[in-house]
Amino acid sequence: MTPASGTAITDVSAPHVHQGLVNGVAYHYVVTAVRDGIESPPSPAASATPFAPADTTAPTFSGLTSATALGATQVQLSWAPATDDQTPQSGMVYDVYQGTSSALDFSATSQTTAAGATSLTVTGLAAGTTYYFAVRARDAAGNLDDNTVTRAATTHEQSAWPAEWAAHEEEVLTLVNQRRALGATCGDTIYPPAAPLSMQPALREAARLHSQDMATQDYFSHTSLDGRSPWTRCADAGYPCSGENIAAGHATPAHVVAGWTASPGHCANMMKSTFTLIGVGYAYDGTSTYRHYWTQNFGR
């Protein structure tokens, strides 16, 4: 049996299954018989194009695992990855459904995730509102699972931030502006006096949510556990930032500002004259490793 390209497939008997072919590519064959070293004339040519059966099987997916409010305007969704007979987990996308009624409309997708995602932070929500969410998995062929698992989360009231925490944030702003008025030496760099910073509401929201997230989930990092960077968190809150300071374990505004001032990189963020805006967020959780968590976001 010899494909038209001239590659011989020898020592086969009928019937023969030619394996390892490329889907959708045409293959051409002729057959000759060999006996005692003598080859017969070739048979008439025949062609065949292998194809995979259409993928009509929906992914296997257990649905949304959790929905957690992150402050007044955001909810974090999490789920375990779906499995599929043909699409790898890294290629799976997820359709997200949301509404303020437990009877979700599954004909209207609110957004679709990037491939391989296992979490999503939903932004732009109303404060003090209960939202219902569901997630369905979609494979590369467009097959969608039909789970109806629904999770609810209630965004925080805008006034729910503890007054003591807010007072700490305002004191940090005062201390930072006092330092800017005097100028500072940050490592080997001398910074002259700079104009005071103003508290920007969206940057403050981003800072608060990150401090609260670190406190409640007991970690300390510029990168959220859902993979978001400071720049993404600020954008999600509604205003871009160009710098971030974080700290943990300092019980008072004076201690945390002193700690930042003693660190060249953190000090530089507080002293840069190109920064005109700041958001300060403080959160406390007595069960977490450091208990006290602080974030500053800087903008222009």
What does this protein structure show overall?
This protein is elongated. The model has no long low-confidence stretch (mean pLDDT about 90). The chain is an alpha+beta fold. Helices cover about 20% and strands about 25% of the residues. Helix 1 runs parallel beside helix 4 (about 255-260) and helix 2 crosses helix 3 (about 230-235). The chain has a four-stranded antiparallel sheet, with no helix packed on it. The chain contains five helices and 18 strands.
Summarize this, please?
With 300 residues, this protein is of the alpha+beta class.
Secondary structure layout plus pairing:
Layout: E1 2-3, E2 27-30, E3 34-35, E4 38-39, E5 46-48, E6 64-69, E7 75-79, E8 93-99, E9 111-112, E10 119-122, E11 130-138, E12 151-154, H1 163-182, E13 184-186, E14 189-191, E15 198-199, H2 201-217, H3 230-237, E16 243-248, H4 253-262, H5 264-271, E17 277-284, E18 292-299
Parallel strand pairs: 15-17
Antiparallel strand pairs: 1-2, 2-5, 3-4, 6-7, 7-10, 8-9, 8-11, 11-12, 13-14, 16-18, 17-18
